[in-house]
Amino acid sequence: MTTDQFTFTVTKTDGAARTGEIRMPRGVIRTPAFMPVGTAATVKAMYPDQVKALGADVVLGNTYHLMLRPSAERVARLGGLHKFMNWPYPILTDSGGFQVMSLSALRKIDESGVTFQSHIDGSTHVMTPERSIEIQGLLGSDIQMQLDECVKLPCTEAVAEKAMRLSLRWAERCRVAFGEQPGRAMFGIVQGGEVERLRIESAKELANLDLKGYAIGGLAVGEPQDVMLRMIETVEPYMPNTKPRYLMGVGTPDDIVESVRRGVDMFDCVMPTRAGRHGLVFTRFGRMNLRNARFAEDTRPLDAESKCAASNTYSRAYLHHLVRSNEILGMMLLTWNNLAYYQELMAGLRKAIAEGRLEDHIGEVKEGWAKGEH
Ligand SMILES: CNc1nc2cc3c(=O)[nH]c(N)nc3c(CCc3ccccc3)c2[nH]1
Predict the structure, then answer these.
(1) Residue of 63, 65, 85, 98 to test ligand 1 pocket, by largest number of atoms within 8 Å of CB
(2) 119-137 in b/e burial notation, b at 16+ Cβ within 10 A?
(3) Averaged in consecutive runs of 10 residues, what is the pLDDT profile of the chain (374 residues)?
(4) Known catalytic residue: 121?
């Protein structure tokens, strides 16, 4: 009897929200989970053990970036991504299609896959569903995403339908290419733009493939929050509730809270890391832009009650100075604070769901943001 080496268990529910655990050989992912983005095999400005200490159970790698530099074959020759970046825990990699469409020049998409020019050296690459899964396997990725076509919003129904159907055909090809990789998983990605009937059809067809998890794609591409939330509400009833749901690219703390409420289990966003490098901090009092002169002589730490040294030790005046001086330590401390806050937010949501008091907790969290910094 082969014990399944990749399992997801829902432990508690509170309305549509749920807590769960994804268990795999490299570790356990506690859901709802926020997954820091480590695009080029590093969570920018953070040490791996710092990321782990904050409570992150999984980080994201990027097929598009790593295939161009240093190349998937070189990472494989060097022992795989976990060894390469000293992150022995779970890694989820995107398939690369989204980054091709948002980063590369001269790209062409057709039934076979995506052809594009590297944004680094202009070299031409072909990414097929099979090649994307091969690259993710060479990297040693624990959770591999199907190759899909994410359309820019707004778009016509015809455009959304064409991309959704292509993505479904690519999901099947990825499933075949992935084969049986014990302890690893391949997730399908629901597409369909803002068209509810397309979203439902995509979710139903993907559910028939009996994959180990499902992402909601094609969102967090500039649409208003109410459109994003409506798409989640539309598609959630058609996504198997015994499988993890991953909302790609989301989001702000408010986006995450509202999506957890609607049954989403996994999130990724460059917001906390990228914003941190630009002086924008996230706290339980809401967000602050530390470039702002009002902080120049503010002796308070970001949050005296936070467990994180970046948040409870350094004065806002000092952080303001570091940001204005474009000092590396500024990027490090604000990234550290932001990731600490995001993980604290997720831990609070998991606890509230486990105790059946999510709605009250969400009220308290939003009150803290509204109060602003006291
Ligand atoms: C910011 N908003 C955003 N919306 C997205 C939609 C899709 C989508 O429909 N399909 C795929 N494949 N990826 C998407 C991503 C990238 C997420 C990511 C980045 C880095 C590493 C690992 C994963 C998105 N990101």
Answers:
(1) 98
(2) eeeeeebebbbbbbbbbbb
(3) 86 98 98 98 98 98 97 98 98 95 87 95 96 98 98 94 98 98 98 98 98 98 97 98 98 98 98 98 97 98 97 98 98 98 98 98 98 72
(4) no
